[in-house]
Amino acid sequence: MAATLVVGMLCVHLLCFGVMFLLISARLKDKKLGMEVFAIGNFLLGTAYVLQLLGGPPGWGAMSVVNHTLTLCAPAVYCIGAMRFFGRATPLWRPLAALALTYTAAQALVHWALGPAARYAMLAGASALLFLGMTAAVIVGARTFARDLRSEMIVFAVLIGGICGLNAVKFAMIVQGGLPALDMDARFQTAFYLYMSFLATVLAPSIIWLVLRRLTDELRAMAEHDPLTGLLNRRGLLDGLQAYFRSRTAGPAHLLIADIDHFKHINDTHGHQVGDKVLRHVADVLRRTIRQGDLAARVGGEEFVVVCLNTDASGAVRLAERTRAAIENSGAVVADEPHTAIRCTATIGLSDGFASAQGLDHAMQQADAALYRGKTAGRNRVEPGSDTLLPGLASTAAPAAT
Asked: With CB atoms counted within 10 Å of each terminal CB, which end of the chain scores lower, N or C?
């Protein structure tokens, strides 16, 4: 009686959260993060338990067959929902239909060949294997594609591992004791469905929490990045610097400002769409040129900033000259003219080193002043913010003025 009551409450819980998942997915519109698939998983599992309550004692029957098929399909649907949450476009209906038809046929074959107990044992064994695979996938995900959710993924692995173990125990009990092991008044059945109820109670809000976290992370990323180039904006640059200087091992940083030469002429001659293409191209050049860990940002129309972290003056000068040369020696391909590349150059102003995020404003002013001196001196050059950078600049090849 206790297990039956728990199953009834579990049905209501699953179906109600299924409706909630659907409502959330409707609000998310284009980017649903798998919520509509999680809703389908809840409806399948909730319907399976309803059929279990209506189907009576264990045995062969249409309700029992459909119940087993839905019970096995539900965790597979949850897997697809999880893959969609992590941005993997995974088909749903064809794999689900193939699994349902295959497992329904397998039930008939096993029941005819080995008897009714074997069909129930097959469900428990197949569920244990499926949950074991899910547990392994979650553990791998915590170390690879879901590193930012490592704590949550570890909790999920423990919870899913628990239901995997319970299904393995149920499989062994059915093999040893037959259908009487499935008596709803047995202690194991009560414990099994109490754990399932606990799992559903914990996982459903956890999924909603993960969706909210992903959405807030995306909003934060949008607030810190330039929409055209994908580089940091001024706010993102400051946040990155603050995070860097919080480290005890943080060394000095140097800032360089790169301004595209004659960018207005590019816009006037080729149009603003081509101008945007050039800006994105320069952003890509910066990504390829800077060192791992350095910060790159777009802070104005055609102005870009790179902060060289943990380096000395000569290292900053070498990076600035390498960046200038990379921009000069590459071109942005125009979509309407695939064989034509718009080439441009950039003038770069370089600041002295600074050792805190509060030094950013002074470094910007110093590099900006150096930038305008470089523009006046002929463009397409690296201009130091002070004489302390001259030895490093002298060691690089001086570009020809344009």
From this structure: N
